[in-house]
Amino acid sequence: MTIPPRLNDALKRLTSALDQLDAAQSRRALADRNRSNLDEELAVMQDDRSHLAVELDAALARARTLALANEEAHAKLSKIAGTLRQILPGDPTGMEDEEHS
Does the predicted model carry a pTM greater than 0.70? Predict the structure, then answer.
């Protein structure tokens, strides 16, 4: 039995359309997998960003605390140095004694 040419042409077009549909489905599946991977990577990066933001906030708070402690220590040492200058006679560095020797 021979297939009429019009039916044969229709079958070829149907086969071509099904092949194109299959290729499109494969491309879509690949795109969905890639999208899923990108979504996972984005979620990981957002978690890392949040973690780093918390660490940065803690580091900045620590830096502020250290800066305040440094200022307090500097003020106390300056006050002590001033007191020592008043109590000790002459040059507290000892330079005055070496010049007179």
Answer: no
